[in-house]
Amino acid sequence: MSGSGTADFFYREAQRLGYVARSAFKLLQIQKQYKLITPGSSVVDLGCAPGAWLQVACQSLGPLKNGGVVVGIDLKVIMLLIIVLKVKVPSTHCDSRVSTVCADVMNLPKHQLLNLSPQKKGFSVVLSDMCPLVSGITTRDAALSMELGMRALDLALGKTEKQPNQEEEEEDDVGVLKAGGHLIVKLLESEDTKELSKICKPLFRKSSWLRPKATRSNSREIYLICQDLQH
């Protein structure tokens, strides 16, 4: 099947099943293979628009009685009116456990994100499906993607290396991912993406790369899957 045929298939399936975007199938495959979101999980979705990953994350929590929470962060701007709006929670596949916050992920203080988690104790899963506005210039797009990936890593883990003479952790140096938690980060594949993997590998029990089947054939998207953050 050609790349366009594959894209058409996932687009049609998304419409048929009530997902707001075909990207839902990427997280569905990740869930099927790794089962990172479980009943009772607390999930934060960085760059959540248009909401397909919110839908899959909520589904993965199971019935409402199982508990859990999904928080989506995104900055949705209508440039014509210069109005900033929250991303709308999809009506299908989402329930009262899903909420969204209008904020710029690149400038969101970690302590504010931590305050959005249950009991302000952090999240068990951090998702980042963020992607830059693609210009078509490979090196530029890869650099912007890496910047987003590093930001997701910073929010999740805080400072990964203690600085000399740093006696106490500052409030905004602590990441929002709880011990034993999982991290998913989308990147545009390049030589630099290996650096992100090197940072994560010693911090998690396991880290691996995945290119979901729903990825378009002409895309360089790849996902870093990090399991079980070590103490």
Quaternary structure type? single chain
The largest pleated sheet is described as:
7 strands, mixed
Poorly predicted spans: 1-5, 162-169
Please tell me the total number of domains: 1
Which short descriptors sum up this protein?
globular; alpha/beta; Rossmann fold; 30% helix; two-stranded antiparallel sheet; 7-stranded mixed beta sheet; 231 residues
Structure description:
The protein is α/β, with parallel strands linked by helices and 231 residues long. It has one domain: Rossmann fold (3-Layer(aba) Sandwich). Helices cover 30% and strands 24% of the residues. It contains six helices and nine strands, in the order H-H-E-H-E-E-E-E-H-E-H-E-H-E-E. A seven-stranded mixed β-sheet has the order 5-2-1-6-7-9-8, sandwiched between helices. It has a two-stranded antiparallel sheet with strand order 3-4. Strand 1, helix 3 and strand 2 form a beta-alpha-beta unit. Helix 2 runs parallel beside helix 3. The longest helix is centred in the middle third of the chain and has 20 residues. It is globular, with a radius of gyration of 17 Å. The protein starts with a helix and ends with a strand. The N terminus is likely disordered.
